Amino acid sequence: MKERGTEGIRKITKKYIAAVDQGTTSTRFMVFGHEGKVVSVHQLEHQQIYPHVGWVEHNPMEIWEHTQHVIKATLE
């Protein structure tokens, strides 16, 4: 199998990089510019569910919906 070269990759100038930060209390999406500075960010807190003392749970559908929402809101 022939490996792909990286020559073309070096010619491409990237302007932005983005990241999802899924934390204990919220979902955040951030876009960083070329210099590493935050260009845009949006965050939503999610419900904390405490079934027992010392335990915390989250609704996976809420996390998924929040992830989609913060990405869309950040890119608008």
Automatic annotation (TrEMBL):
UniProt GO MF annotations: glycerol kinase activity
Reply yes or no: does the keyword Electron transport apply.
Answer: no
A biological-process GO annotation: glycerol catabolic process
Any one cellular-component term (Gene Ontology): cytosol
Q: Which InterPro entries match?
A: ATPase_NBD, FGGY_N
Q: Which Pfam families match?
A: FGGY_N
SUPFAM superfamilies in alphabetical order: Actin-like ATPase domain
Q: Which Gene3D superfamilies match?
A: 3.30.420.40
Carbohydrate kinase FGGY N-terminal domain location is: 16-75
UniProt keywords, alphabetically? Kinase, Transferase
Q: Member of which family? A: Belongs to the FGGY kinase family.
- PANTHER family assigned: GLYCEROL KINASE (PTHR10196:SF69), SUGAR KINASE (PTHR10196)
Q: Could you tell me what this protein is called?
A: Carbohydrate kinase FGGY N-terminal domain-containing protein
| Species the sequence originates in | marine sediment metagenome
**The organism's lineage?**
unclassified sequences, metagenomes, ecological metagenomes
